[in-house]
Structures are given as C-alpha cells and as structure tokens.
Amino acid sequence: MMMELSAYRDIFIEELNEQLERIDQSLLTLEHAPAPELVQTIFRAAHTIKGSASTMGFREMSDLTHEVEYALEWVREKKPEITGKLIDTLFRALDAMKLLRTQYISGGDYADCSAVVAEIKALINMPAEPQPVRLPVLSPAEMLLAEEAVAAGYSLLSLAVTLKEECLMKAARHYMLLQRIEDVCGKVIAVALPAAAAAGADEDSRYSRFAVVAAAGKEIQQISEQLAGDSDVQSIAITPFVPGPATVTGAAAAVEPSLAGPPSSPNKERGNGAQPTVRVSVERLDHLMNLVGELLIEQTSLADLSAAGQRNDPAKVLPGIGGVSDHMGTIIKELQEGVMKTRMLPMDQLFNRFPRLVRDLAHKLGKEIELLIQGGETELDRMIIEELSDPLIHLIRNSTDHGIESPEVRAERGKSPKGMITLTSFHEENQVVIRLEDDGQGIDAGKIKASALSKGIITEEQAGFLTAQEAIHLIFEPGFSTAAEVSEVSGRGVGMDIVRSQIGRLNGIIDIETVPGQGTVFTIRLPLTLAIIKGLLVNVSGRVLILPMYNVAEIVRISPEDIQIVQGEQAIINHGRIVPLSWLRDKLHYPRTERSSKTIPLVIVRSVDRIAAFAVDEIIGNQEVVIKSLGAYLGTMNHLSGATILGNGRVALILDASYLVSH
Fold first, then answer.
1. CA distance 92 to 652
2. Distance of CA 617 to CAs 549, 581, 657, Å?
3. Interacting residues of 48 by C-beta distance below 8 A, sequence separation 6+
4. Distance between CA atoms of 651 and 647, rounded to whole angstroms?
5. Regarding beta strands 418-428 and 509-515, do their DSSP bridges make them parallel or antiparallel, or are they unpaired?
6. How far apart are CA 515 and CA 437, in angstroms?
7. Residue 386, CA atoms < 13 Å, CB-side half-sphere
8. pLDDT single digits (tens) 373-384
9. Which of 53, 82, 456, 525 could form a disulfide with 509 if both were Cys (CB 3.0 to 4.6 A apart)?
C-alpha cells in the first residue's frame, strides 16, 4: 500500500503546503482581530490535513491535527478569550506540523509531537500524562540566531538537565542554572520544559527536568567540567545539536528550516523527496496548445511553399515565405511569453511567509511592529522567488532590530508606538521592483563611516572621499555592524553582505534611501526571469559578447582625453561621479585591434550597489536571447553566466556583469 501511495506524495505535500499557509495567515489575523470565521477556517484546514495524512499513513500528522481540531472545537463551543497563550500554543502546533512536513519530504524518523499535544490538552484543561522533555523546535527568530552563531564560529549544543528530587524551589534553581549555562557556554538560544506538570504535582516540579539549546565557543568536556559540582543537579547530558535537513519544496515552503536535533538515518522507502512542481491554470495551458496548433499550421504552409518552389520558379514563392515567416515570428513570441508565464508565481508565495517572522521578531525584541504587504499579485520567475527568501529575511530582520525603535523611544520622538514595515512589489518595464520600507530611525552616514574605519573596512584616505550615500552602502561590506552589542536578532555582523551577494547572483540591483529619524527604504530590482534576457551585443576584438540589459546603466562615447587617472587607475567622470574604467579586451585577455574611430564606446554596467565602465570596440545593438548553460568540462569561468546561439548560428558568450564589476 505504501508503494502505491508514494505516487501521491507530491500531491499530498502540495496540498499540505497550502493548508499550512492558510493556518499561518489565519492565526496571524486571529491574534489581532478575533472572529468566529477565522476559527472555522483553521478548523477546516486542520481537518483537511488530518484526512489527507491519515490516507497517506502519516499517523504523526493526523494525531496532531486531531488534537488541534479538538482545541478549536473547544474554542467554538466555550468561546473563551483569544489569549496570547492560546495563539502561541497553536503556533507551536503549526511549527510541529511544518517540522513533520520537512521530515516527510526528506525521509528519516519523524518527530515526537507528544509535548505539543500535552500543551494543547493542558490549555483546555484536559488530563495529560507526564511527558518527557524534548528539544525545542526553534522559532524563526531563534533559528536566525542559531545560524549566526554557527557563522561566527560557535558550535550548537543541547544540554539535558535533571534536578535532584530533594531540590527545593526548583523553578528558582532552573533560572539560576540557565544563567550559569549562558555564562559558561556563551548564549542560550532556546529552552524546553515539560508541557505540563504531572497530575497531582505542584507547578514547581515541572522544572525538575529541562532541555537547553546553547551556542558555545568551548569543547564539551570543558563545559561539562565547569558545570559539574552543583549539589542540586542530578545530571547534565551535553551533546552536539545538529540542525535537521532544511529541504525546500515548491514555492510555498516555510521560511524557517527545522532544527530538531541530530538527524536519523534516512529511510529509503520514505526518503524519495518531493519533486518541485508549479501549478498552471487551465487557461494558460489551453492558450499554449492553441499556439502550438497555429505553429503546426504554419509549418505545413512552409512545407507547401517549399514544394511549390521546387516545382516552379523559387522567386515566385518568396512573398509567401515572408508572410509565413512573419506570422511564425508572432506565434513564437506569444509562445515564448506563454511558457515564461508558466514559470511565474505571484510574490504572495514569498511574502506570506513574513508576517509570522515579523510577529516573532517583534515579540523577541519587545517592540510593536506591523507589516503591510502590497503588490503580492506581482508575478516573478519561481526560481528567483525561491532565491529571494534569505535576502529578504535579512532585510526584514535589519528593519525590526536596527530600524524600528522601541515603543518608548518612538513615543519620545513623537511617533506612534507601533512601527510600520511596508513590503511592496510591482512591475517596471521588464523588471520586478521590491521595496522594503520602515518608519524607523534611519541610517546615520557618520556612524556608518566611523564604524567602517574602526573595523578597518576603509582607510582614513578613503573615508575622506566618500559621499554620504557611498558611506551608507558600507553596510553591505563583510563583517560590518553598528550594533552596540550583540543581540538575539542583530547577530555578530553577519547578514547584509549576504544580501548583496545573493541579489547580485540573481543579476539584481539594490539601492538604499534613508532619512535619519524618519526611516529607510531598500529597493531591489530584478529581471523577470533568468531563462530569457534582453542582452546588449558588443564587439570586442572581433568577438560578439553579450551584456544583460538589466545591468546596463548607460551607453556613452568618450574621447581619449576624457580618461583620467585616479589613485593610479583609469576612470571617467559620469554625472559628477568617479567611475572606474576598464578595457573589456584586457579583462578578457583578448588581443588588441586597431581602432579607426576617434571616440571610444563605453558600456556603464551596474551590479547591486557598484558601477564600472567598460570600453568595447563596437556597440551592435540589443535583442532577446535564450541563456544556455556552459558545460561542466569548461571548468570554473566566473566571468561568464552562459552562452546563446545567434541568428547566424554562431555562439555568443554572455558575460556575468556582477563578477566583472566586483573584480
């Protein structure tokens, strides 16, 4: 039966993603605006998941959703106040469902959800059996902290602590031990207690056992020796805490990878994984079929004209061939656009992951923050959407931690205690623009420059030449941070350089606009797709090369006298800005050719927040090209992003603008 059901795994995962997304969004809305219809929506989603999971034989998921159903039925009947504790409990149940979803995709043993089940039972005053302490499922904010700790060279450890039975005031001893663990290890990331006290026991006994996830810069043996000797502690078991597999499937995968302790050995029968899928409307498929039908008709017409040309005078059929060619060109253009649309997904697939993230970060930081999403219907290539998740998470975290002030500070400055983050997307020409705006404290260029100087990112001489806008862009340099102290969200100077590199890898551009005291706007511009681009064809030493048009800022012609030497390097002045100049033939090690023109054609190329000018022999023009990947046998060629076949049958190489500009 399992082999038969495996064919439906992808369908189950796809439906599961949709229902989990529905629960997530409904819980966020329910927290701020309680309404019976929202409870009913969550109930229906849980019921759907339970039925599907039961059919697939996923008992863990069906049992958990059964308890969620029971809790929601209790809410509908008793109509209790929608408290923060109720919402938090349902969110923890949702996180457990997401963890199970990830494990169903990747294979291996499944998580034990008994602690979450016990918490639900305790919430609605149902008797529950004493539960063992499980390692916590990290929230998105805790997971970000864990990622940063690992990036900074720390190791993740799990500590299972058991107090002696005769220990008095276990709760107080629990908090004292947490402080001691933090002093010894470096940072406590998450703590887990049994969901409820055993029947008939006092609440203090609940603290007899607990589990801790900590980031440590010491060896396990050293930590064990420093924590030993407490008269109230029966045992402390310390083991490495290994993040579980963070598999992402489809476009509706959750933002937060699951961290649930050491991964178990994979189960081959259950670990086949779900293949990425895209839902396409029937109307779009019908349109593509109609276009293919028209193409077949034109192919028949072309064959008839070819036969007629062979029987009669070929010159007489040329007008007919021209007409067929024009019509085929129109059809192929529509077919190209139709196929591109099948790869497109609405930005909502990505944006809907962030309200929960902002909620958790705001709670962690003690701030009031509202996230407003606009333009979620804007469509973008699904591959770009999947790659955008991490950069946007870092930008949102930056806005919540560094941008939005605390309610007290905002009140002192005459602002509303609740901060606002606005996430917007829209089409502009052949690009998608994403704007992340906050009404926080803005970015102080002076502080940025001073911090960069103190960290050795720039020299005193360089600092003297920097404009305010250039200084602000220093936040994208590796290791840069202006945080006065390391917080659970700000991390250790890791993050914004990742944003720049990942946006650059997507051939995108990022800009910053900021007003101190009023807020900051990050603007990202991305191509609609990475499969077909509009390219600028240039001639360099007799070779045709292509630069993506979305990286071309400007095309100019200069005379040799316009070239200046700045700090020993060639440069030009463009709109009052010093722009470094390179000869593309020299960068690519092509031989020099004689120039007959008195002017030099330049292509000014922009990537992320950097700009450079490249001299070429000739500007040919622009056209749409299909990107073909280069074979692995060519080895690493960082300056190339692919190749295409021109109309004359020759191969033209497509240059990687981001690499050329940064090197």
1. 53
2. 18, 14, 18
3. 15, 19
4. 9
5. unpaired
6. 11
7. 17
8. 999 888 888 888
9. 525
The amino acid that residue 207 corresponds to is Y
Q: Tell me how far apart the alpha carbons of residues 480 and 491 are, in angstroms, rounded to a whole number.
A: 11
* pLDDT tens profile 258-315: 333 333 353 333 334 444 566 677 888 888 888 888 888 888 888 777 777 777 777 7
What number of helices (H) and strands (E) belong to the chain? Answer: 21, 22
59-78 and 36-56 helices cross at what angle (nearest 10)? 160
Determine contact, residues 148/142, Cβ cutoff 8 Å.
no
Residue type, 480: F
What is the structure's pLDDT at 511? 87
Catalytic residues: 47, 69, 398
Backbone angles phi, psi at 631, to 5 degrees: -65, 150
pLDDT one-digit tens code per residue, 219-254: 888 888 888 777 788 888 888 886 543 322 222 223
Distance of CA 639 to the CA centre of its chain: 25
pTM: 0.59
Q: Are 65 and 74 in contact (CB under 8 A)?
A: no
- Backbone dihedral angles phi then psi of residue 210, each to the nearest 5 degrees: -155, 160
Cα 54 to Cα 32: distance, rounded to the nearest angstrom:
32
DSSP string covering 101-168, please?
HHHHHH-SPPP--HHHHHHHHHHTT---------PPPPPHHHHHHHHHHHHTT-EEEEEEEEE-TT-S
The two structure tokens encoding residue 70 = 């029971």
Q: What are the pLDDT digits (tens) for 12-38?
A: 888 888 889 889 988 988 888 888 888
Structure tokens at 113: 């959800």
- Is residue 588 classed as helix, strand or coil in its secondary structure? coil
Give the confidence band of 602 by pLDDT, cuts at 50, 70, 90: very high
What does 197-252 look like in DSSP terms, one character per residue? Answer: PPTT--GGGGGGEEEEEEEESS-HHHHHHHHTT-TTEEEEEEEE-PPPP----SS-
The sheet that has 519-527: what strands, in order across it?
368-374, 418-428, 431-438, 519-527, 509-515
638/655 Cα distance (integer angstroms): 9
Note the residue count of the chain: 663
Beta-bridged to residue 654, according to DSSP, are 546, 642
